[in-house]
C-alpha cells in the first residue's frame, strides 16, 4: 500500500507546472463570430408545424397512429393536438378521415386512465361543436357504440365517466339524431346501471343494486346522477316527438283577394283516420312505439318508487335530507316525463290504452308512497344546509333541488296527481284539497319566487284549472274558484315574471279557460272574470301580443262578451294609434303584418254594439288627423291601409 502511495506522489510531482503570467484579458473570451446553418429536412417541414406554445403539432399520420398508441401519454397528446387544431381553425386535413378520428377519440371512453377519458370527452365536445349534424350522422353509430360499451363496462369509474360522454352528446347532437339512432338502447343501459333483473316470483322484474365502488359517492348520489341523465334523455325523446307532430300536417292558408279568382279545396286532405286497424276495431293491440314505451314504464316505475322509498324519512321526521330532496326531484320529473311521452303517443295515434293501463297499475302506489293516501305528508320541505366552520361546501353538479321549500318537487307532484286521477272520486277529495291549498299559498309568495320556480307553478295551475277543472269543480268548487281568482289577480297585478316566458304562459292559460264556454260558465262567467276581461285590451298597447291572446279576444267578441267589448271601446283611440307598431308573435300561419292588423280591427266590428258614447267615431277622427301628420312626415302606406280598412269595419257606426 505504501509503495503505491509514493508512486502517486512521484507522478504528481512529475506533472508539468505552468508558471508565468496570465493570458491577456481579450484572449480568454469565447469567439462567437463563426457561422452556423440549421439542418432542415424539407419533407418534415411540409407535415409538421409548431403551436404558439412551442409544442410540435403532429401531422395526420402521426395523429391517427398516436390515438391508438399503447402509451397513454401519446394518446393524450394526440387528442390535445386535435383539439387545438380545431380551435385554431387548422383542422382541414382531418375532415377526410372522420371515421378513423371518431374511432380513436370515442375509444378513449373505455381507457383505463382517467386523464385519457377526460381528454377524449373534451376533444369530442370541440369536434362536435364545429361539425354540421349532417357530417356527424354517418359516424354517429361509432360514438354511440363506445358510449354503450362504457355504460355497461365492468369498471365502475368508466361507468361513471360515461355519463360525462352522454352530457357531451346531449349538448352537441340534435335531439332527432339522438332519438332516432340509440335512445332506446341508452335507456336500457341506464336501467342496468342502477338495477338488475330479478329471478324470483315477485311482480317487479327488476331490483335496485347497491353502489359497486363508485369512488366516494353514496348509492343514493350515484343513483340520482344516473336518473338525472335518464330524465334528460326522456326529455330529448319528448322534444323530438313534439317536433315531429308539429310538422306532420303543415297548414296551408289562402287569403281572399277580390281582384282575382279564388279557388278553395272542398275536401280536407287530413280528414283520414290515422288509427290502425286494432284501434278502429277496439282491440287491445299496441304499436311498436307504444310497446316500447310500455316497456320503459314497466321497468322504470317500480324502480322509481323503490328509489324514493329508500330515502324517504320516517313520519316523525317531516324534513327531507339533501340527498332525499335531490332524489325526489329526479324521481317526480322522470314520472312527469313518462306521462308526457304517453300523452304525445296517444295524441298521435288516437288511443288511450297506455294511460288507462298506467292509472290502473300505478295510481294507488303513487298516492300511497308520495301523498300518504290523505295528503298529510304534502308538501315536502328540505332540511336547512349546515356548513362546518372553516370548510367550504363542495360544488357538485346535480339537480336544482328547489331550495328548502322543495317547490319544483311539490308542483310536479300536483301535476302527476292530476294525471293519475283525471276524474277523482270522493275518496281523493281530501288529497286534492291539500294540493289546491298548497298552490294557493304559493301564489301569495309569488314575488319571492325566481322565474325558474314560477314555471312549474304555472304548469301545476294548468293541470288544476284547465285539464282537470270540470271534475275538480264538481268535487271542490270553492277551493278551485278561489285558486282561479288568485291566479287572475296575480296576473293583472303583473306579479308573474316576464323572463322564461312565465307571464305569457299564464296569459295563455287564462285565455284558454275563457274560450271554453262550459268552463267559463262553471267558474262564474263575466262576474268572476270581470277583472281579467277589463285588463285584456291593455295588452294591445304593448310592443307585442301573442297569437293565442288574439284568438281568445276573437272568441270573446263572437260570444258578445259585454265587459271585454266595453273595455275594448274605451281603449280604442290608443289602440288605433299604436296598431302600426304592434307585432304578433307565435303566428304559425305566416300572415304578413297587415293581415294581423286586420284581425285586431275586426274585433271592433263586434265591439261597436257597446259604443254608447260614440267613442269609436272620435277615435276614427283622431286617427285621421294622425294619418295626415304622418303622411306629411313619412310617406308610409301602413297607416293609410289601417284607416281605410277601419272605415269599412265601422261603416255603420
UniProtKB/TrEMBL annotation:
<dbReference type="InterPro" id="IPR011989">
    <property type="entry name" value="ARM-like"/>
</dbReference>
<protein>
    <submittedName>
        <fullName>Testis-expressed protein 10 homolog</fullName>
    </submittedName>
</protein>
<keyword id="KW-0539">Nucleus</keyword>
<dbReference type="InterPro" id="IPR024679">
    <property type="entry name" value="Ipi1_N"/>
</dbReference>
<dbReference type="GO" id="GO:0071339">
    <property type="term" value="C:MLL1 complex"/>
</dbReference>
<feature type="region of interest" description="Disordered">
    <location>
        <begin position="380"/>
        <end position="402"/>
    </location>
</feature>
<comment type="similarity">
    <text>Belongs to the IPI1/TEX10 family.</text>
</comment>
<feature type="domain" description="Pre-rRNA-processing protein Ipi1 N-terminal">
    <location>
        <begin position="135"/>
        <end position="234"/>
    </location>
</feature>
<dbReference type="InterPro" id="IPR016024">
    <property type="entry name" value="ARM-type_fold"/>
</dbReference>
<dbReference type="Pfam" id="PF12333">
    <property type="entry name" value="Ipi1_N"/>
</dbReference>
